[in-house]
Amino acid sequence: MATTERLGPSRTRRNSNKNILTRIRHGQISGGGLSRGTEMSEALLQERDHQAKWHGIPVMLQRLYDSSHLNSDLSQIHSIIKEVASFLSMEAMSFVTEERRTAQESTSPNTYTFDLFGGVDLLVEILMRPTLTTQTNFPKMSDDLVKDCLSVLYNCCICMEGVTKSLASRDDFVMFLFTLMSNKKTFLQTATLIEDILGVRKEMIQLEGIPNLPSLVQSFNQQQLANFCRILSVTITEPDLGNDDKHTLLAKNAQQKTNLCPSHSEVNQVALLNIPGFIERLCKLATRKVSEASGASSLLLELQDWYTLLDNALVLDTLMQMATEDAEQSSTESPDESSLVTSPLRHSLPQSMKIVHEIMYKVEVLYVLCVLLIGRQRNQVHRMLAEFKLIPGLNNLFDKLIWRKQTSTHVLHGQNQNCDCSPEISFKIHFLRLLQSFSDHHENKYLLLNAQELNELSAISLKANIPEVEALVNTDRNLICDGKKGLLTRLLSVMKKEPAESSFRFWQARAVESFLRGSTSYADQVFLLKRGLLEHILFCIIDSGCKSRDVLQSYFDLLGELMKFNIDSFKRFNKYVNTEEKFQTFMTQINSSLVDSNMLVRCIILSLDRFESQTDDVRVVEVLSECSLLSYMVRVENRLTILFRLVNIINVQTLTQENVSCLNTSLVVLMLARRQSKLSLYLNALREKEYTEKYPGCLLNNFHNLLCFWQRHYLNKDKDSTCLENSSCILFTYWKETVSVLLDSDRTSLCAIASYIDEAYMDLGRDFLEV
């Protein structure tokens, strides 16, 4: 009986505590009744505190609320906030180190209690109160008080995603935070909180709405500007919807029809470009040397603040690894200096911290520049980057910072896969992506060379008795690389030393390929051939054992650009692939995934077509008779097999920017067949293949639907059509004519797809095209 009596009151207290929490939460949701714990009496809160394990947080919030009026004693407010902060900071630190568990309420009870009893809303009120009154003679909040308020809010965001989303939904608070960034003493805490908030906003913020944005950005020092780039990256990049269906060309075309106005990210990019000196300062940040950055002493003072802005554990691990490597190297050079006092680790750590500090800055800056470089204002950005000598500056940093050592231990990942890369790996990938964007279909690509290399290109053209490329002639030599090597040549050197499974191989190949893309330049190809690039690519495809589909695809694409229309490349290919075993290995790699290799297949077919028209050249005749690759592709049955597979692996619903090349390659096969008056032969072969496989009408109907989509997609896109024409050297009018001939509804035409589909199987799958 006594036991029952002891249990009764305890149950009552627990139920009472639960009722209080339920009432508060219900009030917050419904807007009626209790909406924050500070509306309850302090006596009641103290009575329930011990049993509920609130650690006095509701009582502290009650005191904070009572003392936080406009003319209150700010020192008292500050002391209460610091007391609360001690409970929350430990939870936030624990939460980060435990990799952000999902059960937030149970793992962060103090933070949950703080938010439930109105702590988050109260801190926002305290911060914003001076902006909501016309009174001028109120006490001014100290920088330390503002920093502590921001830190508490950030800790709450770390532990509870709901807090972050709630703050993100308040446009007034978000805009207010940007005004705090003008104060250098509160900048880092503000930037940290803004970055977290913008990362969960449903609607992208409009930079034009930030009060006095140009003057704000111009007031930043270089370190602040670099950190601000972390925030900008969220505002100038379209959010990834994480739904593959949204990335299909069908969906993108439909979206473009409904969204005729520029997107928010595009508007934000324009806003940034309109800020005087913005791009110039980013170029200076991207190219400055470590010795030009802030000293080690100021870095150590800043470290306490900025570590929260970065992936702290990852950065610290990298710092220690770099310091250890420096120590090991120094120990090898000075084996007698082994005492703790003269330890190389002790002396090298600040320099290593400076290097990673600078690398992290440059990662953010390069990302912003890269996004701007592929945006609608590309030509304007290109002119600025050239004018402010970004490329020569990066060239001067290449050996000492960008690729100062081989990074051998990192996880291979695809180009679209998220991963926790170390700062150095992220830096290298962003650098390579920037080079890719800079060179791609733009005449400024020759800025990647130095004067001697430009002269070499001119000499190649002169020797071949062909005119120099106009872009090469027009290159401003005041803006090119200096030193013994240009940036492209330096990249080739490290590319050939990269381990077989390195994820850098993908980006390196993409960057070099972009230099070759566009109208084919014989001089550019020979320049790279002379540096052993073709042999390196073939080694990677045939002999290295590389199994990464991403890396192989990038090498296939690069090989295609390097070999297209170039008789020297095919001679070199035949010299390297000098056995049947090597050739079969090469073809196995190609046939294992035509989505990855079809660009190379297209280049081979186009080259073969050109060579067959140049049989008066002895060198061409020799290569045509000896090259195993050309001999394979000249056989119609092999082309038909490739055509069948290309048409069979795609349909309108699955077309993306990645695999639409399969459709264009199949069109190249048929355009060349049409030139040779063999189009009906190919179409009839496809029909026979259908019946052999026992699904009559499916293949040809699918191809018919694909071509209908092709007309819709390309006839409204000038850039895409120009790229097709430049890369194939086939006039776009001939592309359009061939598609029209194939889609002709006249069933008596031997060049129309409809002629090869029996009446009973017409219009299979046509409904899907209307989606």
Automatic annotation (TrEMBL):
Pfam families: DUF3689. GO terms for cellular component: Cul4A-RING E3 ubiquitin ligase complex. GO terms for biological process: ubiquitin-dependent protein catabolic process. GO terms for molecular function: phosphatase binding. PANTHER family: SHORT TRANSIENT RECEPTOR POTENTIAL CHANNEL 4-ASSOCIATED PROTEIN (PTHR31743:SF1), TRANSIENT RECEPTOR POTENTIAL CHANNEL 4-ASSOCIATED PROTEIN TCPC4AP (PTHR31743). This is Short transient receptor potential channel 4-associated protein. It comes from Oncorhynchus mykiss (Rainbow trout).
